[in-house]
């Protein structure tokens, strides 16, 4: 890396000059010193440069003509291209004028297998037929990592050639239509799958996950077609999902150590979706955590806590989260079941060291305010039988200063003997704060008793 920092300015200077000017300005010794570097060092330098500049090194000399053609990792970013349209690259009679031409040229002269290919662009610069052609080329080059991010109005239909890439270990797609052929039996080497705003049918998604036996990381965000999140992946370790789901089932994914689950509902839907309600004497909370024995980091976002609170709610989980050391929860204090559910998780996490609470001010139109206040008070009155023996760091955001929030903070301070720091952030929008304002909030918090003698409360001034 040090060599790259030293040599890249010199290489970049060479690229700014014509061949004739370079011969006058750059001593022959310096040219030879750069050109005589070992191939592995040259490849390392080129891999640290933007691909646009790496390709341009082919004009430096005959020794550099095919250096960039031996790169195994190719990243084409239209944003980088647009920032650098003040030059034109000439290679004999071939002249690059467009982003698509540049990609065509690089793939045409490439002479080694492509390990990684990344494309980020809009359809203003490339056509669907261009991407189809590149995908066909990649399918014949033992591609290992593929990223396609397209900023388009209509999804790009992934061609069948992709599904023949059985050496693929990483796949990331944005704004694509994923429709595998009927003969597709999964990716045997796939370890990481990221789908963002991808249109994929439920059965196709289930088959893709189930038939990728080495899958370790899964990201699924705003994907049309996937409404039942039933994950069958025994080796899965990381999962991040965000979407409208009827049900979440992790029964066959018990190796997960890190998860962030965000559940949302349709904008026109009021109340709890009927599909979330479990059968009698059942519990969504137990169904989820019975199959997360190794979880270490967990994010419960948006409406997921509400989903977990439905059904029979125990005071403590039958199977404690023995390894959970970092927990982030979005809590709506207008939901009378939110606090008992959160407390159940806290009681069941003996190794918890880091806790983040995001105050969700979503209003519940179907709830009566007076009943909510009564339930919230009763919940907190009986919650102090919990000791968070390992908790050290707490972060609370979007606090508005209502009684239920302050009671919860008081509970955390009295239950955490090893607490080191609690950071509290007021709302980003001033209208969400209490009428009495920030000074009164500060005064109340500073008067709270603390179990830990070293606990520090940090309030960020709005």
What are the salient characteristics of this protein?
alpha/beta; globular; 462 residues; 14-stranded parallel sheet; disordered N terminus
Low-confidence segments: 1-22, 86-95, 364-379
> What is the oligomeric state here?
single chain
Radius of gyration: 28 Å
Q: How does the overall form come out from the CA principal axes?
A: globular
Average pLDDT level: 80
Question: How many alpha or pi helices?
Answer: 15
- Kindly state the number of beta strands: 21
What portion of residues belong to β-strands?
Answer: 15-25%
Main sheet: which strands, in order across? 1-4-5-7-9-11-13-15-16-17-18-19-20-21
Distance linking N and C termini: 42 Å
Main β sheet profile = 14 strands, parallel
State the secondary-structure class: alpha/beta
Q: Which percent range fits the helix content?
A: 25-40%
Written account of the structure:
The chain is of the alpha/beta class. 30% of the residues lie in helices and 23% in strands. The chain contains 15 helices and 21 strands. The strands form four sheets. The protein has a 14-stranded parallel beta sheet with strand order 1-4-5-7-9-11-13-15-16-17-18-19-20-21. Strands 6-8-10 form a three-stranded parallel beta sheet. Strands 2-3 form a two-stranded antiparallel sheet. α14 (403-414) links the parallel β19 and β20 (421-425). The longest helix has 14 residues, at 2-15. The radius of gyration is 28 Å and the shape is globular. The protein starts with a helix and ends with a strand.
């Amino acid at each position: 890396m040090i060599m790259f920092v030293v040599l890249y300015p010199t290489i970049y200077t060479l690229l700014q000059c014509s061949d004739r000017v370079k011969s006058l300005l750059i001593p022959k010794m310096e040219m030879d010193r750069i050109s005589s570097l070992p191939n592995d060092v040259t490849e390392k330098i080129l891999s640290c440069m933007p691909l646009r500049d790496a390709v341009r090194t082919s004009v430096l000399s005959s020794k550099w003509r095919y250096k960039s053609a031996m790169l195994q990792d190719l990243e084409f970013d239209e944003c980088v291209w647009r920032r650098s349209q003040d030059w034109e690259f000439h290679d004999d009679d071939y002249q690059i004028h467009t982003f698509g031409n540049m990609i065509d040229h690089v793939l045409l002269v490439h002479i080694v297998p492509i390990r990684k290919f990344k494309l980020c662009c809009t359809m203003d610069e490339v056509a669907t037929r261009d991407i189809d052609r590149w995908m066909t080329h990649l399918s014949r080059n033992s591609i290992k990592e593929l990223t396609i991010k397209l900023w388009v109005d209509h999804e790009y239909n992934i061609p069948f050639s992709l599904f023949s890439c059985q050496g693929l270990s990483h796949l990331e797609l944005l704004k694509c239509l994923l429709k595998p052929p009927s003969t597709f039996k999964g990716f045997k080497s796939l370890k990481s799958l990221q789908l963002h705003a991808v249109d994929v049918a439920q059965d196709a998604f289930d088959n893709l996950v189930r038939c990728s036996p080495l899958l370790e990381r899964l990201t699924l965000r705003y994907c049309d077609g996937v409404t039942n999140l039933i994950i069958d992946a025994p080796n899965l370790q990381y999962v991040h999902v965000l979407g409208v789901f009827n049900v979440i089932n992790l029964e066959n994914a018990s190796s997960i150590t890190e998860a962030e689950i965000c559940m949302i509902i349709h904008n026109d839907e009021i109340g709890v979706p009927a599909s979330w309600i479990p059968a009698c004497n059942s519990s969504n909370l137990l169904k989820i955590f019975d199959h997360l024995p190794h979880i270490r980091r967990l994010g419960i976002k948006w409406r997921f806590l509400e989903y977990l609170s439905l059904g029979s709610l125990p005071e403590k989980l039958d199977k404690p989260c023995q390894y959970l050391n970092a927990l982030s929860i979005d809590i709506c204090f207008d939901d009378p079941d939110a606090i008992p559910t959160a407390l159940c998780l806290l009681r069941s996490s003996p190794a918890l060291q880091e806790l983040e609470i995001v105050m969700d001010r979503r209003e519940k139109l179907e709830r009566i305010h007076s009943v909510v206040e009564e339930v919230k008070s009763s919940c907190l009155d009986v919650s102090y039988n919990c000791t968070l023996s390992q908790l050290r760091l707490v972060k609370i955001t979007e606090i508005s200063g209502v009684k239920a929030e302050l009671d919860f903070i008081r509970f955390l301070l009295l239950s955490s003997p090893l607490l080191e720091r609690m950071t509290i952030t007021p709302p980003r929008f001033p209208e969400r704060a209490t009428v009495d304002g920030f000074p009164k909030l500060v005064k109340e918090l500073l008067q709270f008793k603390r179990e830990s003698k070293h606990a520090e409360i940090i309030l960020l001034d709005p």
